[in-house]
Amino acid sequence: MGDTGCVHFEAYVKEYGIDSFSVVHAYFSACINREARRRKALSCLCHKCGSSGPQLYSCLHCIYFGCKGAHINEHHKQTKHYMALELCYGMLYCYQCRDFIYHRECQLIAERHLRREARSLNKSLSWRPWSPSQLEIELLLKNPKRRHVTACTSIGLRGLLNLGSTCFMNCIVQALIHTPLLRDYFLSELHECTTKNSAKCLVCEVSRLFQEFYSGARGPLSLHRLLHLIWNHARHLAGYEQQDAHEFFIATLDVLHRHCKISMTELAANAAAAASGSSTGAAGSSAPRAPQPDPNPAQCSCIIDQIFTGGLQSDVVCQACNGVSTTIDPFWDISLDLGESSSGGGYGGPPKSLIDCLERFTRAEHLGSSAKIKCSSCMSYQESTKQLSMRTLPIVASFHLKRFEHSSLIDKKISTFISFPSELDMTPFMSQKKSDTADFRYSLYAVINHVGTLDAGHYTAYVRHQKDIWVKCDDHIITTATLKQVLDSEGYLLFYHKKILEYE
Q: Does 167 participate in catalysis according to the annotation?
């Protein structure tokens, strides 16, 4: 069975065409508008028993609805009509094959209808299972051998050589490699590079690393190309001395984000130029069109922003009139203080857990008389309070525990144990606590640790390789670990992945 379904559906299409499927799917399966929903409510009932389900089929040869099982089967036996549409999921059923069938053109029609239904109801598009593109189908046919992933597999685990105080880079790469959606993106080869020299593109290099990690080979890898690219694009990290893993993480995301955005912009411009060229070619030559401005240049939909970018809300409340000034800023991670709190209210002690840190981070702070802000309501400078909260959360929530203190007097490391959970609910720290659609629960999947002092320290990483399977990555050495070892570690950078994703 190929893209055109079975031989019986091919015969059906030759005799009846595909319009019957399109109309039935639009009005009784997807319901593309209000009129379709009205028609379905009034007439989409089993012709045998009068019920509305729970699962109805529509005969594609005539106007007949029947319940799954005896009622629709009885219609088939009496009429010899062999093609039906299951209305709950919009699937084609062939009675001669006695099976559901796939037809590419019908699938494309169904997807258009589902998008129209979502727009009509002002809701996000329901989750749809993955289906391969034509290119992916060709690649699968050319490469029939499959790697079987078992509970003990080492695919995806590779040690990383220390190139001279590069443990800060190795641990961040391990965390990124084990970020599920980032892995899926690069293993699907979705990055389209527009750089003339791909050797200078950091995204291409990261894509190559994912292929290396999941190739099945076990030997340690060298990140010399990645390090060189980072040096070129983030000059402040160049050199052979030990760097801060958090700074490297943010710099890497920034360079990846910029490269992805450039590629997306150029691909969009090329597509627009091609469309413009094809539209003017038929009608004759015309003057070149000005490029269309980005309607929201501050918003980026690259894979980095899709996974790591959240929105931090800041509410400043005037103490004179209670007027509120709200700003929302994007963030890639949240940096949390571990020292003594300077705010009053009995919260002066150091935090003991990640929850303590987040509660202190989102607690209202009185700005004092020395930091008066001009109130837009009072039109005068007044004392105010400031409170931070999470307006939107990213798919990956990363937390930076600020263990390194730098001042004019002394540089020191805070080695206080901060407990952190394997499962984290961020609901209490949201700007809007209630939501019918969003789920704010997260699971821990990577922890970066720093051992030693500021001058003589070393970075290691714990990563979740599979469900309930953790490993410790210490440069080129990979060893198994327990969840208890992970949770008992000091913790410098914590990476949590959303448990449930909302599809748009």
A: yes
